[in-house]
Specification:
It contains 12 helices and 7 strands. The chain is an alpha/beta fold and 293 residues long. It has a single domain, classed as 3-Layer(aba) Sandwich (Rossmann fold). Strands 3-2-1-4-5-7-6 form a 7-stranded mixed beta sheet, sandwiched between helices. Helix 8 packs antiparallel against helix 12 and helix 11 packs antiparallel against helix 12. The longest helix has 18 residues. It is globular, with a radius of gyration of 18 Å. 49% of the residues are buried. The N terminus is likely disordered. Bound molecules: S-adenosylmethionine. S-adenosylmethionine binds next to helix 2, helix 5 and strand 2.
Length: 293
């Protein structure tokens, strides 16, 4: 209970509390097995000639590859952190590619800690149950940090960026992949606002950051060489899988006689709002941010 209270206090929450996020992932994580056999809980990256738009899992792993490339890790022993690691899909992908890598995953979900660590058995990866705004990872100890579709749960707040900056060694990189707003929520048109509210509610997000403000905050925190890449069109093919993948999963659950949890419905609704948001290209974009300490 004390841990939960500590997490609630440190999350600096507007819409989603740490407990709501944890509850959501404790209940909805299993649904993602249908999205990705490797338990990647993010959208994919489509590179023509390399990934086929109808092969979802290869696009999801291509996103992992793109992120790892931007971390520019050294060949020798490296320690990295996945801030908001889900079931450790990205962690396992990184360790398969970089044999001398150790990685600490951070998540609020107890379910992900237990199940994710089973998948990580016999690897140099471990998932811990902590808040990424306030981890026990020592200062200046990490050779690279990633946050894939996770900082959105804290509205891409200064507190999560600050913690990433604290744990990184000087000269090392933070890579964020996520959807961002192109303008403040108050300036969104009715359709964009509707999609924004729907996806924040369904996915327990504390609002998503405005890309220019996030860049300014990274800069103010002392990050340098900040690169912002708009990869919306590369992500679009995997977003288009949503109307097929999630309803199909729910139909299968129904025919297996399994009860459909409220979190699964929320996941379904939020995914459709994400699809709708993707159509409002002047309001939303999907980006890879790379920033060096
Ligand atoms: C959409 S999942 C993405 C998981 C993973 N990055 C991936 O791409 O497969 C979001 C993750 O962020 C985690 N998360 C959200 N808010 C968090 C917080 N304040 N501290 C730690 N983890 C958090 C959730 O527990 C979940 O594991």
């Amino acid at each position: 209970m004390e841990t939960v209270l500590k997490q609630l206090r440190s999350l600096d929450s507007k819409n989603a509390t740490a407990q709501e996020i944890s509850d959501f992932y404790n209940e909805a994580t299993e649904d993602y097995s249908f999205w990705s056999k490797d338990f990647n809980m993010h959208f994919g990256y489509c590179t023509m000639g390399k990934t086929l738009p109808f092969l979802r899992n290869s696009m999801l792993n291509e996103m992992n590859r793109q992120v790892l490339k931007r971390l520019a890790l050294e060949k020798g022993t490296q320690l990295t952190a996945d801030l908001g690691c889900g079931m450790g899909g990205t962690m396992r992908h990184f360790m398969k590619t970089h044999k001398k890598l150790s990685i600490i995953g951070v998540t609020l979900s107890e379910f992900q800690v237990v199940q994710g660590n089973i998948f990580l058995n016999n690897t140099k990866g471990i998932i811990i149950n902590e808040n990424y705004t306030n981890t026990s990872i020592p200062t200046s100890s990490i050779d690279g940090a990633v946050a894939m579709e996770s900082f959105c749960h804290s509205g891409h707040s200064i507190s999560c960026l600050k913690e990433a900056h604290r744990i990184l060694k000087k000269g090392k990189k933070l890579v964020i992949t996520d959807a961002f707003l192109k303008k403040p929520p108050s300036e969104l048109c009715t359709g964009s606002k509707y999609s924004y509210d729907g996806l924040c509610k369904g996915w327990s997000l504390d609002g998503i950051g405005v890309i220019d403000e996030v860049k300014k905050n990274l800069n103010n925190l002392g990050f340098k060489n900040i690169t912002i890449e708009d990869i919306s069109l590369r992500v679009a093919p995997s977003v288009l899988h949503v109307p097929f993948a999630i309803p199909l999963f729910l139909i299968k659950q129904f025919f297996k006689g399994k009860k459909i949890k409220p979190q699964s419905w929320n996941n379904l609704k939020a995914s459709f709002f994400a699809l709708l948001a993707g159509l409002h290209r002047s309001s939303f974009g999907y980006y890879i941010i790379t920033a060096q300490k």
